[in-house]
Amino acid sequence: MDLRQLRYFLAIAKEGQITRAAKALNMEQPPLSRQLKLMEQELGVTLFDRSGRGLTLTHAGELLRQKSEELLHQFGENIKEVKELDAGVRGVLALGAVVSCISLLPPAIERFRKLYPQVTFKIAEGDHYLLGYELERRNIELIVARLPFEPSPDMEPLSVLPLPSDPFVAVLPAQWVPDPAKTTMNMRELADLPFLSLKTDRTTGMHHQVMIEARAHGFEPKVICECSSVAIIMALVAAGIGATVFPKSVMASFPLSTIRMLTIADADFQSEVGILWLKDRYLSNSARYFIDMFKQG
Q: Which pLDDT belongs to residue 81?
C-alpha cells in the first residue's frame, strides 16, 4: 500500500461515494474502485459498509482513516521541513490568539515584518479549547493566550514562552464616571455594580481570577452576564449595561469615548500571557524566529 492509495481511500471516505470521489480526484471511477478493492484484499478487511445508499466506514475503515490522516500529515510536515532547510525565513506563519490577546499582535507583526518582509500571516481566533485543536491539527503553529492554558485533557505537551504580565483594570461606562480627573478606583467599588464576566463553557481561567480577587476584598460580583466575546462585553459596557475587569492590553483595541478605564488602586493582580507551541513537533523557520524575537525583548 502506498501514499497514493491512502489519498484515494481518504477521498472516498470524505465523499461517501466512489463517483464523487473519482470526480474530486480527477480520475475515472473504475480505476478508483479497483484500487479500493486491492486495498481491502491486501489488508484482509472490509473498509466500507456498502449496504446503504452511500459508503460508510467500518470500524477497520475508521481506524485506517485516522491513521492515514496522521501519516499523510506527518509526510507533509517532513516535506515542508526539507524544503525550508535552505529557504530562509519566508512563507505563511499561521498564528492563533484568544480574543483578549489580539491587541498584542499588531506591534509584534509590524516588528517582525520589518525584519522578515517575505513572511505573511494567517491568524485564527478562538478560545483555548478550539486553538488547542487547531494547533494539534497543525492548522496553526503558535498560540498567543492567557495563562494557564486550558486545552482538552488529551492535548499533546506544550512549550510555553511567558510574556510580560498584563495588569487588570476596571472598565466602566463613561456615564458612570462623570469626573474626568478620576483615574483610579478601589476593588470594593465594583461590589454594587452589575458585572459582566468573560467566560466560555470550557475556558474559565480569567473569570476565576477576577472572582478570587473580588472575594479577597469581601464581596461576590453581581454577574448579570457571562459571555465568551470580548467585543460583546465591551459593547455592553459602552451601552451602560454593566462594568467589567479586563487586562489592560485589551483596551488598546477599543475606543475610549464611551468607556472609562480605571486603575484598581488596591488590587495589584496581573494576567499572565504566553506564546505556546507543540513541544515535540517541527516548527517552521518563521515560527522559530517569531519566538526568538520575543525572547530577545
A: 59
Q: Which CATH number fits domain 91-163+273-295: 3.40.190.100, 3.30.70.3270, 3.40.190.10, 3.40.720.10?
A: 3.40.190.10
Q: What is the DSSP letter of 180?
A: T
Give the C-alpha separation, 4 to 177, whole Å: 66
DSSP assignment string, 217-286? TT---EEEEEES-HHHHHHHHHTTS-BEEEEGGGGGGS--SSEEEEEETT---EEEEEEEEETTS---HH
Look at residue 205 in the predicted model and tell me its pLDDT: 87
Listed as ranges, residues in the chain with pLDDT below 50 are: 85-86
Q: Are the folds of 91-163+273-295 and 167-270 the same? A: yes
Burial class (CB in 10 A: 0-12, 13-18, 19+), 186: middle
Query: Rounded to 5 degrees, what angle do the CA atoms 190, 196, 199 make?
Result: 125
Query: Distance (Å, rounded) from C-alpha 167 to C-alpha 218?
Result: 21
> For the residues of 5-46, what is the DSSP string, one character each?
HHHHHHHHHHHSSHHHHHHHHTS-HHHHHHHHHHHHHHHTS-
Q: Quick one: pLDDT at residue 80?
A: 64
Does the CA dihedral 32-38-39-45 come out positive or negative? positive
Q: Does the domain made of 167-270 have the CATH classification 3.30.70.100?
A: no
Q: Indicate the CATH number for domain 3-84.
A: 1.10.10.10
How would you label 231-244 residue by residue, b for 16+ Cβ within 10 Å and e otherwise?
A: eebbebbbeeebbb
With DSSP H G I counted as helix, E B as strand and the rest as coil, what are the percentages for the chain, rounded to 5? 45, 25, 30
Where do the structural domains in the chain lie, given as residue ranges?
3-84, 91-163+273-295, 167-270
β-sheet bridge partners, residue 260: 172
What is the rounded radius of gyration, in angstroms, for the C-alpha atoms of the chain? 25
